[in-house]
């Protein structure tokens, strides 16, 4: 009960800080970076759902992120579709495409699945880069509108866009929480732990893996659409392999298969990246060894390591009274034997 109350306290503090951030920090650059971090978090939650809870590593999610972003741009700029309708259609189109790709990709397993999705992600990058008439190619895609007003709510200012992205992030986290602690989430975890055992229990692994993959693509496409509406300029680099490995870095550092991992990893790496900007291309000389050491000594990431440390403490606290009881019984038993020996003597 105390752990649950402590968790609720931390959530309340973090929520209050997120709401008060634009009031506490007046620098527009930091506000911009925090909004971008929220968008990355949504994408990483999508990756975490499939890789962390279902156990399959998809390397195509940067491509789905880019499709969501470009679909919004094309629908609003070239087709003239109203913003929010285009937003919904962009997410649905990317999700449908993810379902088609998932039907094929999920026939493979383990590293074959990762290699297949890596190839799919690179093909998406090449299509965006070479299809000049549709995507603008290397010149980029410009003129994407900011989020349209909803009644009296306007999203034309950076602060309003910050709160809009924050609302989407909270909705994604809430969805993930309800999913992970539901029967569906337990099914995903069972598949991750042992797909063969899940099959023997009567679980339809293909159907559940596809559902997890499609939902993870939806989250990632949602992040891509938000990115397009916030940055309002797109280039093919957002679909490149380096973006995919940025997502993986955020997830591994924060803690794969944890609810707090995407938040912790994204904030930490984004903050460190900004502090190390003066090193430019040499930043990876620092990130590389640090990430390697983290994976060796903290394979479950920062959030995962904290969770396991708490679990060990709780277990030790639970076993402590039991150990004291056994020790007391042994002491009483030894004392009784000593008294009997004294009487016999």
UniProtKB/TrEMBL annotation:
One of its GO terms (molecular function) is branched-chain amino acid transmembrane transporter activity. GO terms for cellular component: plasma membrane. It is a multi-pass membrane protein. The keyword Membrane applies. It comes from Geobacillus thermopakistaniensis (strain MAS1). This is ABC transporter permease. The chain crosses the membrane at residues 30-50, 57-77, 83-105, 112-128, 162-180, 210-235, 247-272, 284-307. Pfam families: BPD_transp_2. Its main location: membrane. It comes from the Bacteria. Keywords: Cell membrane, Membrane, Transmembrane, Transmembrane helix. InterPro entries: ABC_transp_permease, LivM-like. It is found in: Cell membrane.
């Amino acid at each position: 009960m105390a752990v649950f109350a402590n968790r609720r306290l931390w959530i309340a503090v973090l929520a209050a800080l997120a709401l008060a951030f634009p009031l506490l920090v007046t620098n527009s650059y930091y506000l911009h970076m925090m909004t971008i971090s929220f968008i990355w978090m949504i994408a990483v939650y999508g990756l975490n759902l499939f890789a962390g809870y279902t156990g399959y590593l998809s390397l195509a999610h940067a491509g789905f992120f880019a499709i969501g972003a470009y679909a919004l741009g094309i629908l609003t700029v070239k087709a003239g579709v109203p913003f929010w309708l285009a937003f919904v259609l962009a997410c649905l189109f990317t999700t449908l495409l993810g379902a088609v790709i998932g039907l094929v990709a999920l026939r493979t397993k383990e590293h074959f699945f990762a290699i297949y999705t890596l190839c799919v992600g690179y093909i998406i990058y090449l299509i965006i880069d070479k299809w000049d008439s549709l995507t603008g190619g290397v010149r980029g895609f410009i003129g994407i509108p900011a989020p349209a007003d909803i009644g009296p709510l306007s999203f034309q200012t950076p602060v309003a866009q910050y709160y809009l992205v924050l609302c989407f992030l909270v909705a994604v986290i809430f969805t993930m929480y309800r999913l992970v602690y539901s029967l569906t989430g337990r099914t995903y975890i069972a598949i991750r732990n042992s797909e063969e055992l899940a099959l023997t229990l009567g679980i339809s692994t293909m159907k559940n893996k596809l559902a997890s993959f499609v939902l993870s693509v939806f989250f990632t496409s949602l992040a891509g659409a938000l990115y397009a509406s916030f940055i309002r300029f797109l280039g093919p680099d957002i679909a490149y392999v380096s973006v995919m490995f940025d997502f993986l870095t955020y997830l591994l550092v924060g803690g794969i298969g944890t609810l707090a991992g995407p938040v912790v990893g994204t904030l930490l790496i984004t903050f460190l990246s900004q502090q190390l900007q003066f090193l430019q291309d040499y930043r990876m000389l620092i990130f590389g060894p640090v990430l390697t050491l983290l994976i060796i000594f903290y394979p479950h990431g920062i959030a995962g390591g904290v969770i396991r440390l708490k679990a060990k403490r709780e277990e030790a606290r639970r076993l402590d009274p039991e150990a004291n009881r056994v020790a007391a019984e042994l002491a009483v038993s030894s004392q009784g034997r000593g008294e009997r020996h004294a009487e016999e003597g």
